[in-house]
Amino acid sequence: MKQRPPEPEHQPLKLALLRRVFQHTPEARPARNLLIVLTILRSVQLPLLAWALGAIINGPITSRSTTGLLWGIAGYTALLVVTDYVFHYRIKLALHYGENVVSRLRSELFAHLARMPMQFHHEHRVGGLISRLTSDIESIRSGVQEALFVSIVQGGQMIVAGLLMLWYEPMLFAIVAAVGPMLFLLTRKFRKSQSRMQRAIQESFSRITASVTEAVGGIRVTQGFSREEQNAGIFRELVADHSQYNIGAARSTATFTPLLELNAQFFTAALLLVGGWRALHPDIGMPIGDLIMFLFLATLFFQPFQALGNQYGTAISAMAGAERVFTLLDTPPAWEDAPDARALGPISGRVEVENLSFSYAPDKPVLQNISFVAEPGMSIALAGHTGSGKTTLVNLIAKFYLPLSGSVKIDGHATTAIQTESLHRQLGVVTQQNFLFTGSILENLRVARQNATHEEALAAADRLGCRDEIEAIGLDTVVTEQGGGISLGQRQLVCILRAMLADPRILILDEATSAVDSLTEAKIQQAMTELMRGRTSFIIAHRLSTVRKASLVLVLDHGRIVERGTHRELLRAGGVYAGMYRQFVRPAL
Amino acid sequence: MLGRLIGLVWRHRWRCLFILAIQLVLLALGLTGLALAGMGVDVIRYEIESHTAPPRWPFGIRLPPDWHGMPLLAVLSGSIAVLALLRAGLNYLYGMSVARLVQGEIVVRLRGELYDKLQRLDFRFFDSNASSSLINRLTGDVQSVRLFVDGVMIPAVIMVLSLGVYLIYMLSIHVPLTITCLIPMPLIWILAARFSKEVYPRYRKARRLFDGIVLWLSECLQGVGVVKAFGFEKRAMEIFEEKNRAFREQQYTTFGMVSFFTPSINAVTQSTLIILLGYGGWLVMHDAIPLGAGLVVFSGLLQQFGAQVANVGGIMNSAQQSLAAAGRVFEILDAPLTVRNAPTPLRPAAVRGEIRFENVTFAHRGENQPSLREVSFSAEPGQCIGIIGATGSGKSSLLSLVPRFYDPQSGRVCVDGCDVRELDLETLRASVGMVFQESFLFAASVADNIAFGQPDASPEQIERAARMAAADGFIRELPEGYQTVLREGGQSLSGGQRQRLALARALLRDPKILILDDPTAAVDAHTEQEILEGVEQALHGRTVLLATHRIAALRRAHWILVLEGGRIIQQGPPAELARRPGYYQNLTLLQHDHETEAA
Known about the structure:
The complex is a heterodimer of chains A (589) and B (599). Chain A has 589 residues and is an alpha/beta fold. The longest helix of chain A has 53 residues. Chain B has a 6-stranded mixed β-sheet with strand order 6-7-8-3-9-10, sandwiched between helices. Chain B has a 4-stranded antiparallel β-sheet with strand order 2-1-4-5, with helices on one face. Chain B has 19 helices and 10 strands. Chain B has 599 residues and is an alpha/beta fold. At the A-B interface, helix 2, helix 3, helix 5, helix 6 and helix 7 of A face helix 2, helix 3, helix 5, helix 7 and helix 8 of B.
């Protein structure tokens, strides 16, 4: 059995954090303050209504005064109208306020993530970051929209009802006061058992989800290996386990809710007994109206216990969410453009790498003392096994990372001294991933050139020699999440076209390993060649044909350039490259 | 759909009735408690002000005349307490009965059935539905379906029952008062129904907008390389802002509705109290009804009545939700199973591995264009057949007919001369090993992954399979060797390692037939070599069908099939095909040109 995380009940409310949440959105402050006033008003109004009801029964009705009754009703109605008006604004303002706070948080979160350098994104899982936006910010929402304001209303209602009861009959209020702590303890215990159960439910549920996810993803394997029966058996166990926790949670609700209600009932019984004795006793002679008043007020007094407990839970989870969100927002980017960084004007595309070294983790150098020069328009092929440092090298050229030592210079300017955006505007990439956003092809092309028109896109496709293919795909075709809609080869073409539209001076191409038929393949090759024409290109090559055409081949091994030269020169040299080449040409089979 | 949901309730009718019976008793007890408290007030009042009417006992109960004052109050108060205890017990029973029925039975059963069915559906179903949607059906949708039982049917019946009981009780106190007080009630009903009609579509729309926000963030994170490389950050932020604003404004309209309807429903409920105060107060003043058992009890009844009426909105929404979910759940349960075992399946003791396709034509369900047209060929035991053709030419369809993932519309697929439809499915699949384009590995240890098809395999068998697939070497270098747990479907392994593991998994049962569906599609040339090394060792003594588009992978093939548009357009030994003009020759030349270069 795994160690359970500490009970959330044992967490105190962290006031600094709450203050930060409530002060986070300056433009919403007037609304927030008005809201506080309204909630306080409402917390008085509710007991006041109950009191008025009691007072009318107690006064005009028992004393049989028709005019009194009419006045009473008029007053009561007026109070009701005002109360409901206040209620309307309280709800509206609270909902708006909460939305404004989380809406701003969402924007800040996105802007912050966009600002974070590549390293951050490599170190953080997408799912984790998304849950900041979804579950964490949403729990802040309920915290802001509900916890404080409902607590004020409920707490205030309880206090005012208590005070009224105390003022009428201190003796009877003593009974209430005696029941109070019991209720408090009950509520506490209930919340604890609930949160324990909820955690168990969530854990067992995530096991179910994981199991279903695997079943869906691995369906081919499951059917191919006839594992249906076994999987179903395992799944049934998981479901049964989950259902036990669900029933457990239901048991705790089914135990505590009636117990809480029982309290109120016992109070009524005690009230009748003690109140009756006090009313009947000639020395005391408590008016019967007080008894009725108590019956009304007592409900108002008991109600908030459970509500306040729930709000406490909401506040705790809002706090936990806020803590995670603010921790992320407070994490500064590992690096940003220097304040005196210069904007890069139009470049010719000369790239000079000098003594460049880099590592992601200390003691594990990924690149060591890399030096070379790429003149404008040259194509540099990077060859080497997985893990030799090819990807890291292009990432440094693209300024996704900063060099640890040495430098990368673009047209003579070190990448550390220029504004990143001004470089990226003159850069184009085609990644192996062939990433496209959900949306139309044209929308995807506009990532490279904002406001690109149909004509511009087709003209660019023309220059790549793939206009027919792009027209066949259709610029308005929508690509869906899993890359549905178009084939892999078409996807590659769209990515090449996207890079073309950026009209970059420097190109980074991570060649896709071929998974397309030969005809599409030939088309892609042609488009790539057109794209590279006149641009400084860096290619992580997987095809010898690409390498063959490169102006310069750099062979990397364990972070060093071990060979350099053209394809022919390297073959003649008979070194590492020639060995790799033989592997291509004479496979084992 | 509604009928099937009601059928679900009918299946559990006795337990539902039991639950309703408890509720009915609870209702009665609650009302009795309320009545007793009211009586208490009247008893006290009568004691003090003897000119008022004496307490009227319901159901014609006559108390002994010497029962009055404190002893009577003690009895009343004691009764309230006892009733409260009874109620608490019954409430517990009610809560548990519902939980046992819906969580312990309905959900468990539905999930089991769904999972069972899902596993047996053909792959098309999985390809045409987003995986998240399929997962949702087993998780969220099942819960929404059971909501029909404990969120729609039971509450609806309870609502009708309690409204009836409240009404009768109120009528028994005073008929004109009841009618007057209930005049505004239909307004609550209308408001609540309007509310759910206006607000829930808005919530759903907001939900969609929010999903759009999440999708955008998720894609910008997944494609962070593209975002940064094109300097797209600012524009991405603007797009996010637009989406954020659209969502916020949608929320505002919802908020407007919520903040209008909630106080309005409140106000209507309270207006009945005003009527009660005026008319009821006048009645009390004229001794037409008692103060406690009349006015006080009536105000309690009115509040409960209003609460039940306002429930309508919630029930209606639950009903909509469960109907929508039921559609998605039953879609899976109703999907036809195309592949079933023959009534008396053949279970040959040993499979030799001869494969024959006779005029096979096959189209996926719901598609007009056949994926395979009149395909005929045969493979002798131990032969390696290479299958080439462009994407979409029918390679995968052809391969999937051998282990009978689908049945052809016409023609026969035979293994050892026997139509696969007559063979026992499990026997057939146990003799066919498969490796797919991208292999799915499970979040389990390496050993468990290899032993997937035969969980009771011995460590020796597992290692033997791994050695055959040239995987033993890298497995031993993993932190915990064969016991290393693969996280996230083996993403920590390289593409070549994953494929060799998949090959070992396929070889564990020592299948006579090996099907390789483009196993080197998603890897680079170097990794391709790694995989092919594994494949080469595995070929011996097996009939192999290898689909690929890489010439390098075909050097060991005895026979090549060239597919185009579902037809075999060329076939023959590789050496002969290389001499004939056509797809194979083109491919050889093209890839030769790419990959061989006279230095």
